[in-house]
């Protein structure tokens, strides 16, 4: 008898990337592009024309590299974008602009409007809306007592009151030119992580010359969200990213984000800093 019998096969994974309308760009002339992505990432790439999705399968590392490569092709084809159509929360998010249907309508809470009689008095606009929440850059707590400096360097960022540590073990996987580099960065042990070139204060150095000294921050914030299993609202630690007025910007799934504004991070998001070619893919211990 005996066990083992050779090296264990790497875990298989599958990821689907919406690509409707860009299938030809992914396949390339004579299949050149899709073969190159498969060869460089080690993943199997299939196009499902019925669903309009690109199916990437293989080992976890190969799938992450393949998905990043597919998204780069899609960004080139669409002039930027990404994120698979998922809705994310940002601070001071503006309501959707919806076309007004024909006929006399009064504004309603859902933005579409409800029919009214033209002879009716104008509807009550209700109480004024609260102004959008802005990030708090004021000094507070222990940092204020220390004049907001660490190792003699003044910090440009101060954590908000709703700061919290995550229970999920979040990680950043770093890719350069489609290749996984080094070990994953564990970013679950504190409530925020500062990125940039100033090694005296940052948690994750980004040494590319196009990156600013204090470039961006990932901040965990306590939020109340609905839990289907619990059947109730629960408090969770949600990761957000903020660009700290960097010179060359921070990109989330190919889009440059506005500075000094929180953007909710979602599993499998890709982050880039400045003009560096390094891509940081966000996963956690439960990622499949």
From TrEMBL:
The FHA domain, residue ranges: 193-257
Keywords, alphabetical: RNA-binding
InterPro entries according to UniProt: Cell_Proc_Reg/RNA_Proc, FHA_dom, KH_dom, KH_dom_type_1, KH_dom_type_1_sf, SMAD_FHA_dom_sf
Biased composition (Pro residues): 118-134
GO function terms (MF aspect): RNA binding
Region named Disordered: 1-27, 76-134
Sequence ranges of Low complexity compositional bias: 105-117
Protein name stated in the entry: FHA domain-containing protein
């Amino acid at each position: 008898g005996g066990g083992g019998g050779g090296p264990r096969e790497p875990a298989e994974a599958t990821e689907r990337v919406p690509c409707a309308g860009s299938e030809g760009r992914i396949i390339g002339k004579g299949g050149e592009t899709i073969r190159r992505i498969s060869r460089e990432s080690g993943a199997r790439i299939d196009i499902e024309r019925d669903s309009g999705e690109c199916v990437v399968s293989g080992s976890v590392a190969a799938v992450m590299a393949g998905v990043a490569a597919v998204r780069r092709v899609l960004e080139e084809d669409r002039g930027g974008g990404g994120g698979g159509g998922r809705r994310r929360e940002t601070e001071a998010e503006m309501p959707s602009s919806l076309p007004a249907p024909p006929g006399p309508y009064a504004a309603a809470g859902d933005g579409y409007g409800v029919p009214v009689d033209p002879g009716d008095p104008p509807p009550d606009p209700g109480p004024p809306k609260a102004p959008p929440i802005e990030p708090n850059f004021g000094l507070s707590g222990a940092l204020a007592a220390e004049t907001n400096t660490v190792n003699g360097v003044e910090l440009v960022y101060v954590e908000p009151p709703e700061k919290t540590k995550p229970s999920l073990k979040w990680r950043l996987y770093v890719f350069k030119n489609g290749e996984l580099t080094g070990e994953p960065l564990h970013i679950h042990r504190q409530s925020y992580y500062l990125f940039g070139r100033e090694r005296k204060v940052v948690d994750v150095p980004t040494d590319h010359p196009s990156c600013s000294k204090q470039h961006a921050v990932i901040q965990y914030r306590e939020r109340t969200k609905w839990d289907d299993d619990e059947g109730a609202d629960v408090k969770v630690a949600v990761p957000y990213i903020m660009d700290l007025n960097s010179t060359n910007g921070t990109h989330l799934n190919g889009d440059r984000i506005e500075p000094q504004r929180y953007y909710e991070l979602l599993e499998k998001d890709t982050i880039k800093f400045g003009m560096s070619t390094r891509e940081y893919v966000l996963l956690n211990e439960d990622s499949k």
